[in-house]
Amino acid sequence: MAIVKSKLLKQLSNNYPNFLQKDLSKFTDIILNEIKRALKRGERVELRGFGVFSTNIQKARLSR
Question: What are phi and psi of 23, to 5 degrees?
């Protein structure tokens, strides 16, 4: 399942109308950047009720 950042921001602004759009945008940028940093460090990221993110090293394979 893929979600576009603009749709995520739209849904957040609908759920939290008291927050400004730019504040929600900054918040999502911070969260996504922290997830990226943790994955680069090789850590596992778990968001309760949503899912788990982790990296996996896959061996090279021969193909045509």
Answer: -70, -40
Distance of CA 14 to the CA centre of its chain: 19
Q: What percent of the chain has pLDDT over 90?
A: 73
Reading the block at residue 43, the tokens are: 């850590």
CA gap 16, 8 in Å, rounded: 12
Residue 51, phi-psi category: left (phi > 0), alpha (psi -120 to 50), beta (remainder): left
User: What would the pLDDT profile of 10-35 be if each residue is shown by its tens digit?
Assistant: 999 999 999 999 999 999 999 999 99
SS3 11: helix
- The whole-angstrom separation of Cα 61 and Cα 48 is 34
